[in-house]
Input
Amino acid sequence: MTRRVSSRPRRACPNVAFVLLALFLFVPSRGVAAGPFPGYPASVRNLAQDVVDAAGPGKEEELGRKVRALREAMFRHGILSINAIPDAIFARAWKEGWKGEAGGALRAVTRVSPFSVSLWAWLIRDDLVRFEGPDRLFEDMRGFRGALRQYAPALLGCAAWLLFFVSAAACWFAVWSSISLFLRARPALISDISRGFKRLPRPEIFASLAVLLCFVGPVAAGMGLGVAAIFWFALSAGYLRRGELLIAMTAILLLAGVFLCGGVLRSIARLTGDTRHGSWLGGEGYFPQSWPETGAEAGDLLSGAGWSDMVKFARARAEMESGDLEKSETLWTQLIGEGGGTAATYNNRGIVRAWLGKKDEAVADFDAAVEKSPSGGPAHWNAYQMYLQLFRLERAARVQQSAWASLRHLAPFEFGPEELTHGELIPSPLPMANVWKNLFTLRGDELRESGRSAFQDLFFRPVPGNRVLLFLGAGWIWAALWKSLSRKLWMHSTCRSCGTRTLIVGSRETTDICNSCRAQVGSGVRGGEEREWRILTIRFHRRYVRACSVFFPGTGALWAGKDFRALIYGVLLSLPLGALTVSLGAGGSAHDLVSDMQSIVIGTALAGVALLWVFGAAWGWRSFDTLQLTYNLALERK
Output
């Protein structure tokens, strides 16, 4: 058997940072559809099933023959990728117990499933585990990046996963910061509230119950997380240092971002339809099962010339893949006549005309496509092939160099001039530029969409959707005003070191440490009740801060005055919590590549949360102990 010559350049030049970031953000649509490989011609379906059946340990040679046969059939119908094949093979491997040896079979089918982002991500993971050399890793990264650029549902799926991840992490940061700051302000808040219960016996008990009610009340009342966090920030703002107030302001900004992310996610959902069930953007890789409305009569955001062109392009590609050449040519011609004459459109119509025997018209279409994309693309190779078939050798020689270069740069496809010897023509997928253009157009109404998204009801109830940003802005302004007003009122301040509460006015940063601690007297005040009271205060304060540090890691660092470092720690803790939140339940019973990768994300996120939690608890505990040692309070350890 002739050794296959790879057309991929052997150099480590892909954007590694981009790929490594996207590797963990890869949830492309699975495109579940009725029956295996629906919508494709019978010959392609049968060969695709043969590929799945041939996969297995030690069957690489037989699988290679099946893959080559399927690829030839795909060329004859303009099919660039069948993304259901890798998941079908992985499901077989899982069921039959050779999942650990599935790498060879999955790598072989990259030639017939180059748009499967989950496949490329799984291969990168396999490269990192086995590490058979950097060349293979960089090649898989190049394929991963190329698939994201070419396959619209994958990129939109990754964008949606990223938005979910960022939103979940932002919500966890809001939870951590609001509770930590509330616990930071709680002792002084209790003292101030107890001033209103002076006529009652033990007013501090009633004040403690009131503060507890303020903490659990929003949650018990069914308020959303964002509303509860703003309420806690509003109570705490007057007692916070400037660095701690910065943490609160950051959390409010992130909550505003979460609200807007809900609108963008809703726009993506309306743009893609239900891509997980083979909807229209599955026109490449998964055959579409439904098509959206294209005209303004649809009565929603998905209207206009750009939207109509996208849908018509996908429909024409679907007819091209299914083998109905006459109908496909008609659709391409209509799209070009309506002003949708892009390079991809001319290239695809040229292929259909070449298959129909209209070679002169096909050459004209390829020339038009080359003129619209002079920097490269499949039309350069197709024009070169048609010149050879028509014996226009002088023109073929003139474009040969650009045609070969364009072919080699068509990632993620493994196309090489030395293996395409039968005059194969390469079609164009749905242009990603059009997808993003329409998505950004939809974002013009993101505020209205945000008010209708699931995020609004989940995090910001009972605030109406059109008032959420006003509510968050009011929370921001209230926190700033309350902090400013606290400098003019008599309020309690809690010593960060010993826990002594002092009624002061004109609060500044230095008042967070009482006079006794600044004098470093420790517990060495005069004997009697005053000394016993100070020792008891120190002990209770130490236990309180340590408990907060364990249950809400990083809180001890706030008491120690490490505000900016605590902010960084809160962000770091929120990231694995966000990844864990969006990954839990993703595995389920579906034995596919996405589920396998998600299970890895879950394990990694759990380990990250555990390590950061332990580190934060120990760091907060030690930071507070160091603070007390600095002010000579480490003598009382009984």
User: Anything to note?
Assistant: Confidence is low (pLDDT under 50) at residues 1-34. The chain has 26 helices and two strands. The beta strands are 491-494, 501-504.
